[in-house]
Fold these 2 entries.
Entry 1:
Amino acid sequence: MKATLLRPEDYTRSPWKNGGGIFTDIADAHCADAAVKDWSSLLWRFASTPIVAPGPFSHMPGIDRLQMVVGGRGLVLKAPGQEFDEREPFTTVRFTGELEIVTELHAGPVEVVNLMARRGAVEIELEALREAGDRSLPAGTHLVYAPHGDCRIRLDGEDLAIPGNGTLRIELTEASRLALVSGPVVLGSIRIVG
């Protein structure tokens, strides 16, 4: 097991793929043989971003996306023939990067967390932990993000503090136990396929 604390000053900022905003890149991984780290070499990305006005989402063929509102409320994603309701914070929605999505804001700007992954190469999960309790974490990469102030977790019996807006990146080679002591936290889980 390896645990690394990522602080906000470690994060990078980049434009959305469609240029419509700026996201904060918390952690990511690209193909090992990629000459350039760009959207075409992306394996996975965990990022946060404000959505301050209605508008289209970036077109991302081959990318699966999970998204959750962590600040504000009232976001709905509209796609042809379907919609994804994120009006309540900490609700996870899953959609593909090929969908033509336009956002609707029902109560002002929101802050969202995104976990994106190359389809077929990576499996991802995104959930909010708000109640104290423990769970099993499988082998893989796990990101524990503290969106609203300082949080504490227990990882295999070791107490760890995560400062507000910080992220604990956990690399596991075998299953482990994670307990939320104080939160809420957002847990992103990544498993490379094959």
Entry 2:
Amino acid sequence: MDFEQVIISLYCLFSIVSLTSGEDCLKIDQCSCKTSQGAVDLHPLANDQENPRFTVVGGGYTYDYEPCKELTKPCATKTSGVAVCQRNTDNSYIAGDVDSATFSGVPFGNSRLNLTYTSENGGVLRKSVFHIVCVTTESGKLVSVKEDPPGSGVYLFELQTKYACLSPITPDNNKKHISTGSVLLIIFFVLITVYLVGGILFMKFFAGAQGVELIPNYEFWSSLPGYIKDGCMFTCRGCKTESSYSQI
């Protein structure tokens, strides 16, 4: 293998590792997701008051946002099921339905964890994307909003909260897990099967063997019982070699 092939192989290896470590946070429900390294649970942000949990102003509009539940105040033509509402002095527009919540990205490293809501009103699609930032000193704060690009109906928010920080996943003791010993046994029997099948096919079609000679390494396996016997006798003698004396 020349130097160029080594470089290509290393590049492929690092690409695979990078893709594996960049797993998305998989949705559990509309307010939580998990990765193999932990979970993000925004349910503590749920609001028990009549007013919206978060309100932010930007671009001439006021945005009401209720994480983990629906807004209590009507928005546009809907009285339920709305997570994000865009309002001005004259009208209101649905900018995200509760049931449309989706997670993307990862909540660690240099990547971004986004929580996205969508809604279609009269053929007009609006999308609200919340970039969720782990801030250990902040229970919950909606700090910014902008439409990007302008006129697109895509609204970008930044939500700072300690609940965006990864928390360990509680193991489910009701689930049955395969033990390490079972995994090793499975690997062992798979390797034995591959060895026997592959060896027999090779001996038959490439070496032209017949009968018991089809067994790969037949001489070794036929001698193995004798080796085991000699080993047991050697152990029983206290690991001493057998001495023989000739009669005089």
